[in-house]
Specification:
Order of helices and strands: EHEEHHHEHEHEHHEHEHEH
Strand order of the largest sheet: 1-2-4-5-6-7-8-9
Largest sheet: 8 strands, parallel, barrel
Helix content: 25-40%
Distance between the termini: 7 Å
Oligomer: single chain
Number of strands: 9
Low-confidence stretches: none
Length: 246
């Protein structure tokens, strides 16, 4: 099972070194988000804006590392970590799933990530909701397993009809050629996922009950906001998954 943004809590905020260390300690794979700063630094951070996690104003992509290095995540002892710092901390002790947050000019962030991974010895998979990002990795770093993120977006949250369609129906899988799918748990099961003959990871599983309800329709889960309890039912479901992604 995969800890979404690390095994986070009030003590160990999401995408912090503490959350990643906590995941390693509890034997979970680690999903993390990576973004590119204005000075070319790659950091582990999910949101476009700094406000929710740090209380500061501004878009993180417009910042230089010196401008954010002293910010604290949710008033904890942890700051926004550099990607290279995270890789040094994990050091191959847990599988990593990188959500590459690249929505504009594809290439600069992707290549920075590849350059860092070329010096890393550990199990890594790449995921993204942007099929062009996955295409970049397919061409320039095909050694990394790729996963297409998807969901059923609403018109209110995603006004672009084209984006809604390719996200929901995964219409651009021929471009990204993913080897697995990461699909929003609340949108499972659905006819679009059923048509894709690939392993499915359910995203944003947030309770043991939701885990039991979702496992029949996926091969693995990405969880947050709770610690999975492996009951006899969930153990049996997980054991039945021939294609489960470890």
């Amino acid at each position: 099972m995969v800890s979404h943004r690390g095994l986070w809590s009030e003590e160990f905020p999401e995408n912090s070194l503490g959350a990643f260390e906590n995941a390693i300690k509890n034997n979970y794979a680690i999903e993390m988000d990576v973004r590119l700063l204005d000075d070319g630094t790659v950091v582990a951070f999910h949101d476009e804006k700094l406000a929710r996690m740090t209380g500061a104003d501004g878009y993180i992509c417009k910042m230089k590392y010196d401008e954010i290095k002293d910010l604290k995540l949710h008033n904890s002892e942890y700051g926004i970590p550099k990607f290279d710092e995270v890789l040094e901390k994990i050091a191959g002790d847990a599988p990593i799933m990188l959500d590459v947050k690249s929505f504009g000019n594809v290439g600069p962030l992707e290549q920075k990530v590849i350059d860092s991974l070329n010096k890393y010895d550990g199990q890594v998979a790449i995921i993204s909701s942007n099929p062009y990002t996955l295409e970049y990795f397919k061409i320039h770093a095909p050694q990394y397993t790729r996963g297409q993120k998807s969901k059923i977006p609403t018109k209110e949250k995603e006004p672009s009809f084209f984006k809604r369609q390719y996200l929901k129906k995964m219409k651009m899988n021929s471009l990204s050629t993913p080897e697995f799918i990461v699909y929003e748990a609340l949108d499972l099961p659905n006819k679009f996922v059923k048509k894709v003959d690939l392993p499915i990871i359910a995203l944003n599983v947030r309770s043991n009950l939701q885990m039991e309800e979702t496992l029949p329709f996926c091969d693995n889960i990405m969880f947050d906001k709770f610690i999975p309890e492996l009951t006899p039912v969930t153990k049996e479901l997980l054991a039945s998954k021939e294609r489960a992604i470890k």
